Automatic annotation (TrEMBL):
Plays an important role in the organization of the cytoskeleton. Binds to and sequesters actin monomers (G actin) and therefore inhibits actin polymerization. The gene is tmsb. It is found in: Cytoplasm, Cytoskeleton. GO terms for biological process: actin filament organization; regulation of cell migration. The keyword Cytoplasm applies. SMART domains: THY. InterPro entries: Beta-thymosin, Beta-thymosin_sf. One of its GO terms (cellular component) is cytoplasm. This is Thymosin beta.
């Protein structure tokens, strides 16, 4: 039953205050599915209405 204490949904305040941000790796965010531009939307509208 000791595992239940360590597998809580919410971290304890001690874990939060002792968290070291410097150990995190830098990452580059890449947008996988970018939104279409206004021009692209207008072109698609013209194609579907024609």
């Amino acid at each position: 039953m000791l595992l239940c204490a360590f597998m809580a949904d919410k971290p304890s305040m001690m874990e939060i205050t002792s968290f070291d941000k410097t150990k995190l790796k830098k990452t580059e965010t890449r947008e996988k599915n970018p939104l279409p531009t206004k021009e692209t939307i207008e072109q698609e509208r013209r194609q579907t209405s024609a």
